[in-house]
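[AMINO ACID CHAIN]
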Amino acid sequence: MRWSATRGSLLLALGMLPVLGGCLPAQEPTDSTGALTYPRPKAAFDVRWLDTDTVELNASRSLSARGGRIVQYRWSLGDGHRIYTPLHVVQHRYELPGRFTISLVVFNEAQQTAYAQQVIHVVPEGDIPFETIHEGYSPYGVLPSTEQVEAVRARNPAEFQRLWVEVFGGLQERGRPPSVNFPNEMVVALIANDPSARLEVHRLGVREGRLEVEYTRVRLALAPGCHPRAAPPHPSRFVVILRVPRVDLPLFSLPHRRTEYVPC
């Protein structure tokens, strides 16, 4: 069998293809039409309250993976307004209070999309009426050195039952929790992790998009050798449970008015 120079060169070149293939530059991924494709983007955004009715939406956490970038942000603000923009930060003012669902769709250069949404609650600034439905000491305390006031809220019967058990340990003498008209009402509980303190709540209201509770912490000024009958068992914590209209706000703050000391 005779081999031609041309045929030998061709076979030699074909034999070297596996070796040369490892040296070729990596190609960008393409679809069946030859167009470049990119991994899907990711949508995410943060809400910052500028006023009780105005928000700033920041989608800088939205990402487009290697090889592309986000070219458009499409906002649906829940009140009928929409914003289509190449910028990742927008601001919007709501004309009426209420519950609004904010949706974001991001597009990358390949027109791939990603979606994210959040629910906000626009509430007029001002005081909220409240009723104290329980206050007293709970024997389930914390370390004596801890001086901290915590606030929790329950927005349905299951959350309220869980709060009641966690605060009082399900003690039989506490009986059933007070009645609350869910879902129109909710419960706000203030827990003073301080064995020598009790709380006096002065105000509950909305300020700058936050639900705030203003209170005074009253502490017993115990002199050496003084053991007043009013002093709680140690360790313990003081609990105030308020019944208020339901207000679903994203933040919760506790302005501490002052600390008062009462003599033994």
Observations:
- The CA atoms of residues 46 and 58 lie 5 Å apart.
- Residues 10-26 have pLDDT under 50 and may be disordered.
